[in-house]
């Protein structure tokens, strides 16, 4: 990744980490902050034929053979270990065996980082590097290592071969084994300020100025999540009207939502209603946008709803029937928010 293409809030973090020593880094933080981008930027800088050979390391030049090989996913000294779902989403190649199994419809892509892939990574770490700059193993999302996969990594992570570095990137560090965390130097991802995020969204990603501020708020201030909302079809007006549509709109308007996406939106609404009830400012919606929800909604109802949404999230990836799940989620939301006695609930 060349410096001009780098996320503007990631570049200072690259320079910060390049000035420190360590063979294993854990990049942790909320989604949408660029952990994977930072991991690749570090790998590129360590192996860059120009930056990597200087006394004071700098971000990758973006032009040498090493940088080019990394950009096209063919660097012989970089192994990027992704779950199959993540690899397909990001456009990274799978190994031939896994790709053949998926092409033949023998199984679905795995959300976990499989132990077979980890064993291949360990073999990779033990081989001599090709360019004399060392080797880098990037693991993302690291929380997708199950116990067997993580345990297979431990010895190599603690005592790697000379010149081997690890970068683990995660959006759920609490799900990692303590034994993995203890073997890494932790780097909490920096939160970019709103002006920087809006400039990136509008000028680099071409989001309309009318949509970017609302979607950034809908994403909780996380710029890459705001971009994902836009790419999923969300616009400022639709998000602002979400509470009203939920209570008074046609349920069929939510038919295109996936259960995961709907649960995510409902959890944000539940969070902001709890904020309103406690007198704190909401995070994802404006107070005026919450005005459609009756103020009689109480803590007990909201707490029960939050717990139910969290339970639903565990099965949302593989619902028995997605349509029925969405219908149940909408019914429960209306029952909770309309206080059961309001016209919005009686006529839904």
Q: In the CATH hierarchy, what is the class of the largest domain?
A: Alpha Beta
Task: Supply the helix-strand structural class.
Answer: alpha/beta
pLDDT below 50 for ≥5 consecutive residues: which ranges? 340-348
What separation lies between the terminal Cα atoms?
51 Å
CATH superfamily of the largest domain: P-loop containing nucleotide triphosphate hydrolases
- The value of Rg in angstroms is 23 Å
Main beta sheet, described? 5 strands, parallel
What does the overall shape look like? Answer: globular
Describe it:
There is one protein chain. This protein is α/β, with parallel strands linked by helices and 348 residues long. It folds into two domains: 3-188, Rossmann fold (3-Layer(aba) Sandwich); 194-346, no CATH class. Helices cover 48% and strands 8% of the residues. It is built from 17 helices and five strands. The protein has helices at 11-18, 35-47, 65-71, 84-90, 96-103, 115-126, 147-158, 178-181, 194-204, 212-218, 223-231, 236-240, 242-248, 259-278, 299-315, 322-337, 343-346, and strands at 24-28, 78-82, 135-140, 164-170, 185-188. The protein has a five-stranded parallel β-sheet, with helices on both faces. Helix 7 (147-158) links the parallel strand 3 (135-140) and strand 4. Helix 1 crosses helix 2, helix 6 (115-126) runs parallel beside helix 7 (147-158) and helix 14 (259-278) runs parallel beside helix 16. The longest helix is centred in the last third of the chain and has 20 residues, at 259-278. Residues 340-348 have low confidence and may be disordered.
